[in-house]
């Protein structure tokens, strides 16, 4: 569905505010949830939406939420966006709609093109086409077990939702370890599926590091 659960909305908003992106791209923009988050948490950010369903652009007013809207799939963006660079890439309730091979290709490509990649995805939730849109079907399963090829990232999971923050190879003023420490000390709420006022527990990011030569790897 073009909307999404609010389980990690408070965490996402705070991460966006701390990362303070100047350039951000939102894949599978849907109803524009992350466009709104970017507008409020990083008001100076230039935002790009990538959305394969042309009908959603007008239906959800995406041109009013993003600086640029592109009607294309993630795979099409990979082919056309070779020279693009972003401070933050977002795949919010999006990657589960891609075949696993496409999603892994996407995350690998973003390691070179985004300082941070924020992924939020459901696990265990069955979904077929929605309102006749076959692309809304869930076709791949994602968890922390899928990301151990990556050398520097953090994750949390709750209420069948997972959140993953991957540190790419582009420079950023805020190291991942610092973001993890901040999150784990400020008691950011994790919510029930549909209730942003609810409090299940504090967010707790777990850091995964597989060190290489420090001189070559941005923190």
From TrEMBL:
Gene3D superfamilies: Vaccinia Virus protein VP39. InterPro entries: SAM-dependent_MTases_sf. This is Methyltransferase domain-containing protein.
